[in-house]
């Protein structure tokens, strides 16, 4: 017999294992019509009770009918119940076994992948009340569970995929190697290769068995097995769009996103989880409407007052039990209050001053009496002065004056030209006001010198609008290096993933990306086409009509 660590779970041929495991006394099978049709030979030699199909059959009414039939059949405490079927069947059989005549022995033969790796293992047996999942139940282990992967050939692709959701869940909880194995395979291969499928099933089972062995009645550690299920149960209750496994996959992706937003999971691992679900034909997006879903979540059995236990992945192969308020859960699912900081580039973003900068290069050339090697155009926007002078100034000028002198003189000329013309970009003041009303911090992250920034700071009275700034004098590395934005995030006390950078130049956009911030580009100095060609997704002409809510809708849809 191929058992898993003396757990009572066996992988192999049903026919062979039953001969060794089934007690030598009266056996009554509990099953459903689908199993009777697909696996009749397995059932026909036993007395049997057939229950209804689907979640609608997993209720107290079904229990009463089974109790009545058992009594009519003269079943006593020596009778052995054998549940053959999917999760509904094993839940009903386990519940009946735990309660009929105060308890009779029972075992399971799961015939779906979902039941094989989850529902039949662990000793939890429950029924639904009013459409809410497993609100009434027991903890009692079966005498045995026989997992015969050859019996899964009758499953539809959709049902097979549903079971894989629980396999992926197990991998995310505690088996990074299983996750890698799934990443290196695919749906068709797994369906066709029974040996590989048995390996996958055994690995997933081991995760659950190890957890259950430590916490049989879900007082602590066992909660990790609920990964994705709180949201999954709410989806099943509120929408009826997905089956259980599909809902688990969506729930898993939701908690992965939540974990990323809370800084507990890397964006890379969140993406790996989503892509693996998609690889195995599973949905990843919440169905609408969200409000019905949230109402169902508030009635989850894992609530504690106004808080909810939610299992979140912290890496592929590791999870954490976190208590969140229902308001926090709502904000995560509705993708609200995600933004905690705004960082504005100055030149070309906060203010529209780039023509003055470009003119300053020309004025300096006239004053020093040299011919520029090429005209200063918008291709230089966002680049450091040293780079620009190296491209436009003759070498003899650079040798005579040095790059630092040329840069300082150019900036002084720029200030002469721009003083008295300071004007914030359209819509900026309204956006900042909305941000402040929502507790969102605002900062400037500019490579320009402090004297330039102070000109703008005083001219636009930014001390009443902006929380602070990081400028070129505060950094060593210039854009596209992320230093200026990382230091801005640090100064605000906000994680980069919770910040939005506003930029107009591709070097600044790349700096924002490198910092790990969300980036919105303004097409004030480059065309929409040019920005899109550089891979920029979120492009706006200015700040008009922009609010924190509209930003979150744009960035987290």
Compact description:
The protein has 557 residues and is an alpha/beta fold.
Q: Kindly estimate the percentage of residues that lie in beta strands according to DSSP.
A: 15-25%
Share of residues in helices: 40-55%
What is the overall shape? elongated
Give the name of the CATH architecture of the largest domain.
Answer: 3-Layer(aba) Sandwich
Within the CATH hierarchy, at the fold level, what is the topology of the largest domain?
A: Rossmann fold
The span between the termini is: 51 Å
Number of helices: 25
Biggest β-sheet strands, sense, barrel: 6 strands, parallel
- Give the overall average pLDDT: 89
List the uncertain runs: none
Q: Tally of extended strands?
A: 17
Strand order of the largest sheet: 14-13-12-15-16-17
Class inferred from helices and paired strands: alpha/beta
How would you explain this protein's 3D organization?
By secondary structure, this protein is of the alpha/beta class. It has 4 domains: 9-154, Rossmann fold, CATH 3.40.50; 207-333, Dehydroquinate synthase-like - alpha domain (Dehydroquinate synthase-like, alpha domain, Up-down Bundle); 341-350 and 422-555, Rossmann fold (3-Layer(aba) Sandwich); 354-418. The chain is 47% helix and 15% strand. It has 25 helices and 17 strands. The strands form 5 sheets. The chain has a 6-stranded parallel sheet, with helices on both faces. A hairpin with a 2-residue loop joins strand 10 and strand 11 (318-325). Helix 6 runs parallel beside helix 10 and helix 12 runs antiparallel to helix 13 (267-279). The radius of gyration is 32 Å and the shape is elongated. The model has no long low-confidence stretch (mean pLDDT 89).
């Amino acid at each position: 017999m191929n058992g898993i660590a003396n757990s009572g779970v066996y992988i192999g041929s049903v026919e062979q294992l039953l001969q060794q495991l089934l007690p030598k006394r009266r056996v009554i099978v509990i099953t459903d019509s689908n199993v009777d049709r697909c696996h009749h030979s397995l059932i026909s030699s036993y007395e049997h009770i057939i229950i209804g199909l689907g979640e609608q059959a997993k209720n107290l009414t079904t229990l009463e009918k089974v109790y009545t039939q058992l009594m009519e059949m003269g079943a006593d405490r020596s009778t052995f119940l054998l549940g053959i079927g999917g999760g509904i069947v094993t839940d009903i059989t386990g519940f009946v076994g735990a309660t009929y005549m105060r308890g009779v022995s029972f075992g399971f033969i799961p015939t779906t992948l979902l039941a094989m790796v989850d529902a039949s293992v662990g000793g939890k047996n429950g029924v639904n009340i009013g459409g809410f999942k497993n609100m009434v139940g027991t903890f009692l282990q079966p005498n045995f569970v026989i997992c015969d992967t050859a019996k899964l050939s009758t499953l539809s692709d959709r049902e097979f995929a549903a079971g894989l959701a629980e396999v992926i869940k197990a991998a995310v909880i505690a088996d990074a190697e299983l996750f890698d194995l799934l990443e290196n395979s695919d749906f068709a291969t797994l369906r066709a290769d029974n040996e590989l499928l048995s390996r996958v099933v055994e690995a997933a089972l081991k995760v659950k068995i190890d957890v259950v062995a430590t916490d049989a009645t879900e007082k602590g550690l066992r909660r990790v097995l609920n990964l994705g299920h709180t949201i999954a149960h709410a989806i099943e209750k509120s929408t009826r769009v997905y089956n259980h496994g599909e809902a688990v996959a969506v729930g898993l992706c939701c908690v992965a996103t939540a974990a990323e937003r809370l800084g507990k999971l890397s964006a890379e691992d969140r993406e790996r989880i989503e892509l693996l679900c998609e690889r195995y034909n599973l949905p990843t997006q919440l169905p609408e409407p969200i409000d019905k879903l949230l109402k169902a979540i508030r009635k989850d059995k894992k609530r504690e007052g106004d808080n909810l236990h939610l299992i979140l992945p912290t890496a592929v192969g590791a999870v954490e039990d976190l208590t969140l308020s229902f308001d926090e859960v709502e904000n995560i699912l509705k993708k609200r209050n995600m933004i905690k900081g705004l960082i504005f580039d100055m030149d070309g973003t906060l203010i529209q001053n780039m023509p003055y900068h470009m003119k300053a290069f020309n004025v300096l050339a006239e004053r020093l009496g040299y011919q520029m090697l090429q005209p200063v155009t918008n291709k230089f926007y966002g680049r450091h002065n040293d780079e620009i002078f190296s491209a436009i100034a003759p070498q003899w000028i650079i040798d005579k004056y040095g790059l630092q002198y040329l840069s300082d003189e150019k900036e002084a000329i720029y200030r002469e030209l721009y003083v008295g013309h300071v004007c914030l970009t359209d819509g900026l003041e309204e956006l900042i006001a909305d941000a402040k009303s929502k507790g969102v911090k605002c900062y400037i992250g500019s490579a320009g010198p402090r004297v330039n920034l102070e000109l703008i700071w005083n001219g636009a009275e930014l001390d009443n609008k902006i929380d602070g700034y990081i400028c070129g004098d505060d950094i060593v590395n210039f854009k596209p290096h992320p230093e200026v934005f990382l230091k801005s995030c640090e100064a605000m006390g906000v994680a980069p993933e919770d910040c939005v950078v506003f930029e107009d130049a591709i070097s600044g956009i790349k700096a924002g990306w490198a910092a790990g911030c969300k980036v919105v580009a303004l097409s004030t100095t480059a065309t929409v086409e040019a920005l899109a060609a550089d891979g920029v997704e979120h492009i706006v002409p200015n700040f008009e009509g922009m609010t924190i809510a509209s930003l979150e809708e744009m960035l987290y849809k």
